[in-house]
């Protein structure tokens, strides 16, 4: 007995939405390779600006670490359910996000990159930066909720003297990333931290102030950072390697 045409066709190279439109411009077969070169695409991702809206920073933080954001822009217009299917598909390539963050990401994608995004004039003004909330969204995947890090992979922030090498050094790390081996509490870490320059000046000041006042880091006598402090550092960008060299100078 002959087979129907649908049985003869190979599977599509692209995930598709409910109307059979491709959700990505990258073939699915290439996605594992993309995941293996996470750090290489960070610079390109920095050139893409997503529409303003609640949880945009969370989307930046979760997505641009591993790949360019162009596919998000190219896929704009699909529904929240279709974005949910995208996240499900990416789990096989290592995507791991807490349920509450997944819901926030889907709210953003379905609203601001969905079929009927609101006009820019209707986007709600962002609430004042909350350092603990920024940390929970942007930092816990690597440094953990209690600042303990991951042994051999991501250094702890609890009791980390790098936080106090210089008042503005942590700002340089967050804005520019850092690449090169670092030793903390006798353990060497050689992973790459990407830049988080998508965060606002207020958010960066708030999250560093939060880390400096948590997990036993209190009482170091460092004046809290302000958005103006972060803005002054942002005007003088460095490469991740230069930040690593700056660390050596300060030690």
Structure description:
The chain has 251 residues and is mostly helical. It folds into two domains: 13-122, no CATH class; 133-250, Orthogonal Bundle (Cytochrome Bc1 Complex, Chain D, domain 2), CATH 1.10.760.10. Helices cover 41% and strands 2% of the residues. It has 13 helices and two strands. The protein has helices at 5-8, 31-36, 42-45, 56-63, 70-74, 80-90, 99-112, 131-138, 140-143, 169-176, 201-212, 227-234, 240-250; strands at 182-184, 187-189. It is globular and about 50 Å long. The termini are far apart. Mean pLDDT is 79; it is low at 1-45.
Question: Would you tell me which CATH topology of the largest domain applies?
Answer: Cytochrome Bc1 Complex, Chain D, domain 2
CATH class value of the largest domain: Mainly Alpha
Radius of gyration: 20 Å
Overall 3D form: globular
Helicity, in percent? 40-55%
Architecture of the largest domain in CATH? Orthogonal Bundle
Strand order of the largest sheet: 1-2
Low-confidence stretches: 1-45
Structural class: mainly alpha
- How many β strands by DSSP? 2
How does the major sheet shape up?
Answer: 2 strands, antiparallel
| N to C succession of SSEs | HHHHHHHHHHEEHHH
Helix segment tally: 13
First-last Cα distance: 76 Å
Overall pLDDT, averaged?
79
* Percent of sequence in beta strands: under 5%
